[in-house]
Amino acid sequence: MSEIRQTRATCCYCGVGCGVIIESDGQQVLGVKGDPAHPANFGRLCTKGSTLHLSASPVLQQQARALYPEMRTDRNAARTRTTWDASLDAMAQKFADTIARHGPDSVGFYISGQLLTEDYYVFNKLAKGLVGTNNVDTNSRLCMSSAVAGYKQTLGADAPPACYEDIDLADVVFIVGSNTAYAHPILYRRLEAARQANPLMKVIVADPRKTDTAREADLFLPILPGTDVALFNGMLHICLWEDLVDAAYIEAHTEGFAELKQTVRDYTPAYAAQVCGISEQDLVAAARLFGKAKASLSLYCQGLNQSASGTAKNAALINLHLATAQIGKPGAGPFSLTGQPNAMGGREVGGMANLLSAHRDLANPAHRAEIAQLWGIDDVPAKPGKTAVEMFEAVRAGEIKILWIACTNPAQSMPDQKLIREALRKAELVIVQDAYKTTASVDYADILLPATTWSEKEGTVTNSERRITRLQAALDKPGETLHDWEIVIRFARKLEARMGRERTLFPYETTEEIWNEHRESTRGRDLDITGLSFQILEQQGPQQWPYPQGAAGGKKRLYEDGVFPTASGRAKFVNTVYQPVAEPVDARYPFRLTTGRLRDQWHGMSRTGTVAQLFAHQSEPTVVMAAQDMERRFIKAGDLVHVTSRRGSQILTAVAGDDMRPGQAFIGMHWGEEYVSGRGHDGDGSYGVNALTLPAIDPYSKQPELKHAAAKILKAELPWRFLVFGWVDKSQVLALQAAMRPYMRRFAYGSCTLFGRDQVGVLFRAADDYAAEPALLAEIEAKFQLVGADVLRYDDRKRGNTRRILVKDGKLAAVALAGDTSAEHWLKEYLEGGQAVAALGRLLLMPSSQAPQGFKSRGKIVCNCFNVSESEICDTLAGMSIGGDADARLAGLQNKLKCGTNCGSCVPELKKIIFAQQSSMKAAA
User: Fold this and answer.
1) β-strands 622-626, 649-657: how paired?
2) Taking the complete model, does pTM exceed 0.90, yes or no?
3) Under a CB-based contact definition with an 8 Å cutoff, are residues 240 and 292 in contact?
4) Which residues, in sequence order, are CB contacts of 775 under 8 Å at separation 6+?
5) Do residues 275 and 348 lie in contact, with contact meaning Cβ atoms separated by under 8 Å?
6) Could you tell me the CA-to-CA distances from 201 to 167, 295, 747 in Å, in that order?
7) Which of 56, 337, 353 lies closest to 173 in space, CA to CA?
């Protein structure tokens, strides 16, 4: 038996940067646990992080991974397997020819906040140092660029001034534009613990939706989408009026306040409250809590960033901190929560179209000269590069001929998918470098370069609190995969040969060599890490920057001395003026559509989407509407609706939510065409949630307004329904789900997701105006093994109803329902519960929504760690004595069912269920 090895790394999901310990036998990952020594999480993991080992299962990886290079020379042909030399030679020749004919700006690189710092560094050097173009941008443009611009405009550098410890030390925590309980669960666990330790702590949450985070706030501000600047200016107006600003701090450490003061005079409580759609009383209460506190900490994320006014939103919040001196001290500061695992590292090495290494600005000639000297080149090009949306617009326009995409999926994540697909088809060469071959973007790749992924990579990442962690690889590179930095270097050397360069710019053999060059670029900069080394990171653990040469350690928090990295040494107030959303609602598009994260999924789901149990909490793509809106439009829960914006349309299942006001709707950001689609308007297919979002960008950060679009929602009159689900061998489950994607476009609506836990299954759902041809249904049913004499059959051709039931060992194995699908619910639960069906007899083939006698539905899974359902939670609560407060009832649940005792991600939802039950008991009494 192979020896079990333990390897320290970090989680590859959000920017909290949780430390993990990977258990492996050298061949495969056997388990994962939180690293108790890592200061980001102290051993805790959320539902996503705690299932990382499941996503690394060899039986799943073999189906989803890109393991060898593929290439095609004809756009209409399929890619075929090739060698690394053949693919990189072809790329180098095409690059050299294209640059010679059209100039270096005819190529573009679109990379990722999931790359390691060393990967990022060599991509940046390849584009700006060798090719001679600044057309290198990243999906961090969709994530953090407004936070970057906000920090730079006000504090002078892209440096979050606070740290995680400040959550423990704050008197007031102001959460805005973030459902922290879902997006950054481990930090939310820390906040829960801090509130328990300090009952006087107050939490304010501003959000258009009453999320799980908002439900637990002491004060909830249900602002209208996009009104954040008005909220912050209104709070500052009140702080000025009630003498809650710190005039001495403003005088000693800031500039520009007089102009801002004139602007916020107009943001009276009445005006600001009206714009935001909240009460004056709540606005005043929020300002007083924030301004009077000894230490106020704000936590914010995509609700501020993903906006055409994102920079102003960030700056307006920082203005509030500066005016009240809530910065540079324990428990205080404006703290941007990073969305991706290494978006911070990418910003550190300048891996964006407007940046250079070590937080240098591309527009600064001195900064360009410094990097040119470091790299040993004549100059860095001065012409600004294309940012994410601009880059795809340039590809569509024919300006950019070659597009290299690495570790990201723009055919899911970018706004206005029609634009993105037109660009990908227009490009002369599309290169996709990825660990997974199952993403929508891979379909457009002329060359597919297989990269390593989590558990196989080594290098460094930086988390939200400026903490650098050294990752070690637990496994060798599978198949013919290479590390991302190795791919870049191999290509760069081939291109250098064609460009006649005698000395390579890429002499590296290890990540340490790359990192050391990056380290040297930081000397004397705000993020100086010249005192750090791989040895220190390995021996002493993760360290925060700045950590200059001679320092004994990194800095917990910044600007404690009131000195800022600006020309004057003073922080700058930005004169922020409220601008409404880029696309206001109107009579034709009356809904304010917002997007956001689900609890158990991440980004485009290329990894989380391989783990069936992560679908248990949110099993299928939906649009969440207010119950009043549904009633007014005669839409029932489970009905299909057309969600349409000015750019596209996607049919989705409607569900009622109590988390938003009428006129608003919400769709999870994760649902791309990999999981939901349909024929679309012109038969070319629909592309999921980002068919609806708009590419309007912030003028400073160039970040698109992914968070809000005007939409209309109409009931979809699709009378014919089809559903097939069944258990699938684990060695085939992802292959089957991928194989079903083309079938989604054969119907007006189609979706395909996973389900199960120990056993795993695939569920395919479709709807249309008319019954599908029997041959098409038979083709789909065959993929679920619904063929042969063992299948129970029912056919009512007159009504278009058919059933196919496969029973194995006395239990359901697969079910197909066409026409009347009303028995779906109880049949699926019979299948998932492994209940014997012999006694049901003909009931299996009866088209009835009425479940057999004695059947009890489990309902939604609330606790994924222990597979605890909503019905089990409610039954347990009902069996408790009526007395006892909510905390006691929660403890009772945790003691009996274990729910909420592992990762804790379900605790806010458990509290919601407890509150609802207590309210109903009081109403009954």
Assistant:
1) parallel
2) yes
3) no
4) none
5) no
6) 10, 10, 53
7) 337
Cα torsion for 43, 44, 48, 52, to the nearest 10°? 20
CA–CA gap between residue 842 and residue 429 (Å, rounded): 57
- Look up residue 922 and give its amino acid: K
Beta bridge partners of 107: 402
- Could you check whether the bond before residue 185 is cis, i.e. omega within 30 degrees of 0? no
Q: Record the tokens describing residue 333, joined without a space.
A: 């500061």
Which of 72, 97, 138, 109 lies closest to 400, judged by CA? Answer: 109
Q: How far apart are CA 694 and CA 416, in angstroms?
A: 5
| Alpha-carbon dihedral sign for residues 123, 127, 130, 131 | positive
Task: Return all residues near 765 (Cβ < 8 A) that are at least 6 apart.
Answer: 620, 721, 722, 723, 749, 750, 751, 752
Q: Please tell me the distance from the alpha carbon of residue 844 to that of residue 528, in angstroms, as a whole number.
A: 68
Structure confidence at residue 842 (pLDDT): 77
* Closest by CA position to 646, among listed 716, 584, 715, 581: 584
Distance CA 232, CA 267 (A): 9
731 near 62, Cβ under 8 Å? Answer: yes
Instruction: Please state, in angstroms and rounded to a whole number, the distance separating the CA atoms of residues 412 and 258.
Output: 45
Q: How far apart are CA 322 and CA 154, in angstroms?
A: 9
Helix, strand, coil % (nearest 5) of the chain? 35, 20, 45
DSSP code per residue over 757-811: SSSEEEEEEEEESSPPPHHHHHHHHHHTT--STTEEEEEETTTTEEEEEEEETTE
- Does pLDDT of 924 surpass 70? no
CA distance linking residue 674 with residue 479, whole number of Å: 25
Residue type, 525: R
CA distance 256 to 666: 38
d(CA 282, CA 287): 9
Residue 477's identity, in one-letter code, is K
pLDDT band, very low/low/confident/very high, at 696 (cuts 50, 70, 90)? very high
Span of 157-171, 328-342, 813-827, 848-862 with lowest mean pLDDT: 848-862
Side-chain half-sphere CA neighbours of 234 within 13 A: 27
CA gap 675, 673 in Å, rounded: 5
Residue type, position 632, single letter: R
* Residue 395 pLDDT level (bands cut at 50, 70, 90): very high
Asked whether the predicted pLDDT for residue 2 surpasses 80, the reply is no
Residue showing tokens 């939200």: 464
